[in-house]
User: Fold these one by one.
Assistant:
Number 1:
Amino acid sequence: MLHPKYRPDIDGLRAIAVASVVIYHAFPGALPGGFIGVDIFFVISGFLISTILLQSQVAGDFSYRDFYARRIRRIFPALILVLLATLCFGWYMLLSDEFAQLGKQVTGGAAFFANFVFWADAGYFDTAAETKPLLHLWSLGIEEQFYIFWPVLLGVAWRRRWPMIRVILVIAVVSFLVNVLTIHPFRTAAFYSPASRFWELMVGGILACMRLKPAAPSRMRSHVQSFVGVGLLALGLVMIRGDKAFPGWWALLPTLGAVSCIAAGPTGFLNKYLLSNRVMVWIGLISYPLYLWHWPLLAYARILSDGLPSLPVRVGAVVASVVLAWLTYRFVERYTRTRTSPGLLRVLAGLGIALVVVGLVVFSGALQPRHHDIRLQQISEAAADVGYYDDFKNYELGRHLLYQVGKGPHKSLLIGDSHVQQYGPRAEELARTAPGKANTIYFATQGACPPIPGVYADANIGCAERRTAVLEFARSPEIDTVVIGGCWNCYFIAGGAPGYYFRDASGAAHQFRGGDGMALAFDSLGQLLRELSSKGKKVYLLLDIPVTPDFEPKRLLEGSRLTSMKVSTTMPTLPIPQDQRELNDKLREIGIASGVEVIDAVANLCTADGQCLRTMSDGAPAYKDAGHLRPKYTRSFATYMDRALLNEGSAAPKK
């Protein structure tokens, strides 16, 4: 197969891409838009792969076998090494639940569908992204999926003499539209889906097609393209933030910047004097193994530190990743690239398949990590206990999905966020053990969506629309009992949650922090409670549970993951913070003044002196994380919710 002439400036562009990603991951505040380095990689890959494919088609010597053999020699050696190292270190330091999840990540990474693994796992109760050692392999999955689809498309278009650029342009436009149309309603899908990402690789493919019949050389055009390209990349690195709707329209900055740099050619001013600099080229040469190594090191450092590692630790992780990347490039990549024997390909493919199998074994729990005993297993089980709606049926309220359990003639509707969702297992337990007494129970919850009319959050698109539909359902004669709850501590403590505000009837926004938004929200909550009560419904205001970082089950661990660990038995309770106690008192006053019943979780979880349970009688954690009771606890012990879920506490059913 033919391959494009080596261009040092493209390695320099790779250096910008990988350095941006590494800096962003290691020092998040230093380069807010550093994650766009992945998009730069996409454009480079699309250009180079398309150039190889098209030049081989022109020469008439294209071979799918040779193409994929080259991909295996290029991708597998460093990837296999990193996966093995990550898995071995994970066995040494992770707990059972963490190790099982790592097994799934290894399988996804080795089989090139990591993007689908992380897409499926993404959710409100998902493990923090910073502690997933192989999260970065989602982008490799996108690229490899593109390499399956792209050669076939170009081969068919070439043989049938289709207008190549038009075909690619149409498909790229469709992919881009999928991206911009899904970025708000389905942000996770837009980020991980190949359908919304392929256009970035196709931008490079379009340039490759145009280079089949290159335009007359123009030094001025090359210089302009070089400056424009680097300028767009710099703009993207500075302007784009993690809270933007990315990729969406924002992704045009890195993709157009990268394609402009490539189009400028090696003679463009910045391409020649910046991108072709020896240091930049060297970083570009090790960019692939550097990308592979840096994230597991930073993720493990975060796990060991139980949070953001210190600056020296992060600097050390970056230095170590550079050293490992150079060693991998020098002694692994350069060796395998020059060996074309079928035996090497079979070994690499076999190792890849073996890693897929090992990952599945680890995920199944058949292979346990070093830190595995009964008490440590209890911590792992608490962290993995997320089945809040496992036995519920779906209930469609127009375009909105609710969850239903029970078949009683009375109907209870629970409205709120994840702090209401945590009581799903108790509702299911009552429906199972007392079917004659349990109501038909609906849970209408959405994470970080306050059930208070007028409260908005820019980062929670769709909350207001869903809340409006759910409250209309609550007002309908079909519902007998309504429970309003939420993570009140999240919204109203320490000046209010950032990004939340109250929009009044005139449309003016009142910030929670530094404004009067919280007072208006309290008034709106009272009005809602009074309105629902006036309609003859039984209404409950559910107060919040205690929330502090120390309720996180893994805060019970003592010792070091690198040596030995045990579970503390000396602090089965923790004090409730005074500001949370005061907030509960205020909400109780609102509930009583509104004529509704108040369900006080703190009165059941805490003693009179303010000490709140952290573990159950068997020593197992009562919490799933720092802010949610686990299903095992609520299923058996959250009996304070029963009056809202059984027909004894409900209003008479509507005729």
Number 2:
Amino acid sequence: MNKKKMIRLTALVGVATATGVVAEANQAHAATTTTTETTNQTTNASVESTQAAVDAAQSTFDTAQTSVDNAQANVTSASNNVTSASAALSSAIANKEAATSENIASATSAVSSQAVVVASASQAVSEQAGVVSAAASVQASAQAEATSASASLSSSSANVASATSALSAAEAALTSDQSTAANNLSAAESAASSASAAVSSGQAAVDNAQAAVASAQAIVDAVAKVQSSDVINMSVAYITALKNYLANPSSANAAALQEVAKGADYVKELQQKFKSDASLDVVVDPSDPTVQEALSVYAVNLINHLRNQYGLTTAFGASANANVAAIDFVKKYYDDEDWNIFGTTGSDGKGHNKNGLDAYANQLNTSIAEDAGSGLTTWVNGKATMATTTLHNLLYAVYSDIATMLFDDGGTNNWSHAQSIFEDGTILGTDGFNNVYLGVAFDKYGYAHYELYNATEGNHLGNNAYSLDVQTAAQALLTNAQASLASAKASLQRMTTNLMVAKAAVVAAQNQLAALENSSANDLVAVTKARTQLASAETSYQTALATYKQKEEALKKAGDNLAAAQASLEAAQATLATAKAKLAELEETVANLTNADQLLAAAQAAYEQAVANLTTATGNLGAAQVDLAKAESQLALAEDTAEQAKVRAAIAAQVDQQLNGSTANDHQSAGQDATSLKTNGRALTATVATASAAKQKQGANQGRLPQTGNDDQEASTMALVGLGMLGMATGLYGYKKKKLTK
């Protein structure tokens, strides 16, 4: 799009227009028969006429702009052609300079040599085409043989499928009843096997129950003996010294307690009081619930007997839940963490797992204290060895540990084990032990752990409490074991009966299968025949398969040969194409050198023609631009004329309005009215003389018309004033800019 500036010369036009408007206004006043409607129609017609002229000028301008654009495109195209022709002319000049007889002869020789190369390459292509043709023939033959072999293989495969189907049908006829019978037999045998296994399991349960009864009986007998006799009695002097020390653990009180306790010698004396019995030499599992109950009841009774001597009325308790918690704690924080509390010599151990105690106390939300003893381990030459785990060993370990805690607990422990036994409501200065339950467990190193829990309704550690009446608890164990034995025997009897029934079902199924096999001779013949036919079909199939594979291999080889021949042909064709291209290039070079004069002349003529075309296009562009400038000026003039016609119409309308609105009283004083008009955003003010001034003059000259003498001069003066003001305003308006978009 082009943007143009248009300057309008409208000063003279404005004066002329204003003069006409004032004259029309005077005429409208002088001739009372002329109406404002006529004046307005005249000025409106002038506006319409000038607007039509603007539209026509705009159309002419648009046409001229299109002509300029087309001419500019032609100039650009002609300029490009000149550039191209100039390059061709330069090339032709260079070719002319190179067109010597020696260069022509050399190029001609090169053409001849290249022609020989082309001929050789063409021959190679022809020969390789023959090779490809032969390979294609071999490949086609191999394809036909492979297709035939495939068809034979498909036929053989169909025969195998048919024979297989026939055999399946024959076998189905043979084994229909046999299969059912065989399944029945298999099910019966499986049931018999399961019943037999159940009997074996039941027998093992009976054996285990009988062993449990024997073990419970041994425990009942042994515990009843040792519990009544294996008690630890403290002297009054020991109790007094211990109370003094626990109340005030001073050095003097500690020495006095140690003197009364008599140290290790007295411990040995107490240990010798343990009542051994042959009935205790039964091998048991320390984690067995029955053994756990016996040990914890035994230990709690020993401790409570000591607490009674000490003067305490609150007793420790024993429960299955406390024992389970003890076993779980020892496994988790000693066995799983390989935590050896005493070590291999008694002095290289890790001691109590305090972090584990804290963690487990938080887990159970209760207070826990732990005592530990040598348990099942005896000390031989400073090394710990695991003793045989019998009921005797376990009871003796508990008895020995508690005795050691009382009388040989000096040194760094400061009698802390004794404190844990004889304190009430607190253990080692820690409150929250108002309902103590004891759990006993042995770690994998053989050491005994005595876990003291404060049982609450929330942690349930006091649930499933054991009776501390040894005889009652032991008898309950025996009663439970005997009940388990009776249940196991009854279960074994049921299982034995089930086994007998299952064996009978096996015999019946075997008889049914034998009867069916004797009556299926014809079906067996059909099966044999079908199997023979299937074997023959499979042999034929294998032969056809081997032939198919052979032909497929031959086809693949022929295909590979054909592909190789085609690749060689394509290579030869590529070589021939390259040679031909080179020959054509050389021939073109010879032609260019030979025809250098003609090529140069043609290039010169083409260049001159391009220059001439450019000159013509440039001239056409100049002419179009001149036409465009003319059209632009005409458009500007037409628009100015139209705008001033609008101004004149507006002024006429204003004057007519003022004249038509005057009355007799208004004509008594002369004056000037200012008429303000707005056209296209500009204020245009014209000052005109009204009929009032003329009427005053008329009164002075007694009604004379302003045509001659001084009257004419006065009228002319008034008109010139109006024209001057109008001309100034119109001149200011006339200089404007307009944007034209194309």
Number 3:
Amino acid sequence: MINIWRLTKIQLLSSFGLNKALHTKDVKERRKSLLLSIGILAGVLMIAAASFGYSFMMALAFEQMGRMDLLLAIMMAVTSLVGFFTTVYKASGVLFSYRDYDLVMSLPIKTSHVVASRMLQLYVLNLFFSVMVMLPAGMVYAIKVNPGALFYLFFLITLFFIQLLPIIAATIIGSCISWISSRFKASRIISLVLTFAVMIALMVGSFGMNENGQALADMGTGLAEMVFKLYPLAAVYVDAVCSYRMSSLLLFIALSVLSFMIFATVLGTRYKAVHTGLTTSHASGKYIMKPLEASSPFRALYKKELRRYFSSSIYVLNTSMGMILLLVMSIALLFVSPEKLGERIEIPQFSRYLSTLAPIIVSLFVTLSCTTSSAISLEGKHLWILQSSPVSKQSILLSKVAVNLTITLPIVVVSGVLLMISLRMGWTESLLLLVIPSIYACYSAMMGVIINLKLPNLEWTSEVAVVKQSAAVLVSMFTGIISLLFPLGISLLLPHVNGKLMMSGVGMIMIAVCIAMFRYIQTKGEQLVQKL
């Protein structure tokens, strides 16, 4: 057991760069770590506050229906589904495709202990998200219902078991996708296509589970049936926490723990074989001699960055899912008019709000699809090659920015055109819908590369630690969201302000910021890269 704990602790400390922060004697590094910790704490508090606000708004509706138990049921199901979606494409990287596999497996430690430590790493990462979402929801439920003492005990106990079954399901699906794709030549592309197909199918299936309109006719009963049908374990959870039933509590814990232990044990016995199967790929023996082509240094760097991007399924999935969701949303609005959507979700003048805030909504998806916030860190131990190469370091950084724009701008244009059609926008609104997200795409790309230069993680063992868990990714994401809060707040709090004029002002400010960042990369880029 002590080996499992030690391995898990080392993996978690290295994932977030905490090991270096705790043991460094450099004053600048300590100051940077302190500021980063404050920023992460602020981000966690923001997510918790948002969760509390959403839970409180839902509680107002559920209180009128007399179904406050639905609050915990929905938040528990949402937490599990989000954990499942995020684990599908990171499970394979955490469990199998980590760089120090040979080193770890050569240690005098049982294979089952290695597997258990890797599973616990996934569990702790998902538990962190569960706490941020479920604790505010539990607080809202306690305020509205004023439950007995058993509620608090059962709620805290079950909090530690919510993510176990989603981790198992996501690991199985993610491993199957990796295994199937490894049987083909274009394994990376097939893996991406299969993962996107599974996620989109699950999302479409979850939205289509109650097409008969029962939830509209009988909101309380229909919504409960939809949630419990989507995730049956939510019914056991609600029965245990809200009704204080010991049998349901024991059943919930037993199902979660036993399934987790059985899965970890079985995986431990076949771990090496599974790892070999997942990491073995098809290689073609054909080689066709072609004429060599010369290109400019920037074009060569751009092609290299583009190949590096598409070579990592974790990298692509984590940074392109926002743009895929934007495209799906834009297509869906062609078939469901904003007016009907506003009637269904009971928001008056929803169409007008959507037309006004469309540039901000699209920009949000853009800022969540930043590839540059981990592009420097992914160089890892090979960074010295770029540092010693006879090309300007500004070209290296701008080639990473260009890849980010290649991913975001085409989808921004296509989604913008689709939204223009569905929202029936005028010329001014249509222009702003294309220009504002494009400006934010440039802002997000350059901000990401600057933040990654300031907060690099070059000593990673798994790409998941860089793409999903690094400090640069978190700071870049929160910076992008914060940059959108100001125009969003003005639009919601001051509805009488001319939306077109406000968006134009935001665009001018962001253009100035982008120019300043571009000049910073040009003047300081060489120095920042060499200091890494």
